[in-house]
Design a protein that fits this description.
Elements lengths: L1 H21 L11 E7 L3 E2 L3 E2 L7 E21 L8 E2 L3 E4 L9 E7 L7 E21 L41 E3 L4 E3 L2 E4 L5 E6 L4 E3 L4 E3 L5 E15 L7 E10 L5 E7 L5 E10 L6 E5 L6 E2 L6 E20 L1
Antiparallel strand pairs: 1-8, 2-8, 3-8, 4-5, 4-7, 4-8, 6-7, 9-10, 11-12, 13-14, 15-21, 16-19, 16-20, 16-21, 17-18, 17-21
């Protein structure tokens, strides 16, 4: 009995040395929850290990061998109530191989995932005559339900929590990423991003809610007005901002002078003189105050065309000569 105990301790110590080397000199090795000793001299199997109660889900197999010209060392499992037929371990081999074939020794690391492994053993076939000693030590994570794998995400059975981000900037979401959002206490919304800046120019994935304002219905980004259009001419309509398909005109500044005082409206519509789908978006401003006009509109309250793709114009109550400047953004 003493000799047998000493042999067992020697086997375990040797195994832990192998494991420590493979883990790059790990200094703190936690006490295993499951242990299978390997001490074989030829073609044989270890004793069957009952994993139904301990429920270990990750394992490290490490061994040393001498004297054999061929080695096949297989980590196996069985699923029946009474283990009668063993198969190759069904989980993931995260390090090493299974079966192991090194004639000197090796280490392999295994993980169950969601696979049940209620019965375990190590099967050995050796070519030649020698000795093979080692150990399988395992650990359990959470309540495995008798070797059925670790607990899954809340509300699922055995399904791991997966965090998968996009492949890179400018790529659509893939998998199940953790997303960034905001909440008003009732509704949650993702932080949106855009491929163009508030002025219509190219941008690099600008977060539109990072510096945004609430317009009464949705969150809208603040923006920089870097488009400028000088205008002058004579008539009853004069274009002051050129629109773009799929974008609104956001007017930030407007100044003009008139050859005579007339009523003025700020309009939107299609065509050079906003002649189609014309609609008033500002005014009417009375004639007795409009020989000259200047106004700045803040990003929090810009003068905005009501339909995407439309131009912005000044409409006059009578033909007049006018000139001025409009500063605006497109998005």
């Amino acid at each position: 009995m003493i000799r047998k105990a000493l042999t067992t301790l020697a086997v375990l110590a040797t195994a832990l040395i192998y494991a420590g080397n493979s883990a790059q000199a790990q200094t703190n090795v936690p006490t295993p929850d499951c242990v299978i000793f390997i001490n074989l001299g030829g073609t044989a199997n270890t004793a069957v290990y009952d994993n139904r109660f301990n429920g270990c889900v990750s394992f490290t197999l490490t061994y040393g061998a001498s004297g054999f010209s061929g080695v096949t060392l297989t980590f196996q499992y069985a699923t029946l109530a009474a283990p009668t037929s063993f198969l190759t371990y069904p989980g993931s081999v995260t390090t090493g191989i299974n079966p192991n074939t090194s004639t000197t020794g090796a280490t392999s690391i295994f993980s169950n995932g969601a696979t049940a492994t209620p019965w375990l053993r190590v099967a050995f076939t050796g070519v030649g005559s020698g000795n093979l000693q080692g150990v399988v030590y395992g650990y359990k994570t959470g309540d495995s339900g008798g070797g059925g794998g670790g607990g899954g995400c809340p509300g699922t059975t055995g399904t791991p929590c997966v965090v998968v981000g996009p492949a890179g900037n400018g790529v659509a979401l893939a998998g199940a990423p953790v997303r960034v959002g905001i909440s008003d206490g009732t509704d949650a919304r993702d932080i949106q991003s855009a491929s163009t800046a508030g002025d219509g120019s190219a941008a690099t994935n600008i977060a539109s809610v990072a510096s945004s304002v609430f317009n009464g219905a949705t969150w809208d980004r603040q923006f920089y007005c870097n488009k400028q259009q000088a205008f002058d001419g004579t008539g009853t309509v004069l274009q002051i901002a050129l629109g773009n398909t799929g974008q609104n005109v956001h007017l930030c500044h407007l100044d003009f002078t008139l050859s005579s005082t007339v009523q003025v409206t700020i309009e939107q519509g299609s065509g050079a003189t906003c002649g189609t789908s014309t609609a008033t978006v500002g005014g009417t401003y009375p004639a007795n105050t409009l020989a000259a006009f200047a106004a700045d509109y803040q990003p929090t309250a810009p003068m905005v065309s009501t339909t995407t793709g439309f131009n912005m114009c000044l409409g006059f109550g009578a033909s007049v000569t006018a000139g001025g400047t409009a500063i605006y953004a497109l998005y």
